[in-house]
Amino acid sequence: MRRLFTAVAALFIAALPAFAAHKIQGTGTLRDSQPTGTTDKQHKHQAYDLSFDAAANRYTCRTDASKSMNPTDFVVGGAINYEIDGQKVTLTTPAGKKVECKVVRVEAVSAAPPLSQQ
Hints:
By secondary structure, the chain is an alpha+beta fold. It has 1 helix and 6 strands. The protein has a domain of 82 residues.
């Protein structure tokens, strides 16, 4: 019985990393920042959709409307550091300004063939 318990415990421990979320970290450029939604009593702050490229994908994440974000801290075309953990994203500027958001869209970024001129 003890051997069975040890085998099951070892199997569980070996399988645990397969269930862990894969973190993606890197640097990039903020591609777009758009306000979304409206403010009201439940949503005291403006939410924003932020787009950036990471690991061959373009991500769009939405900030939480219950937390404030200064849009002038996140300049479109400016450098950012990103950390993607499942659906949670943390964006940081070189000045140390940080915002957390959730992924709402992932788009594959591929090299588009040049348009033919006719």
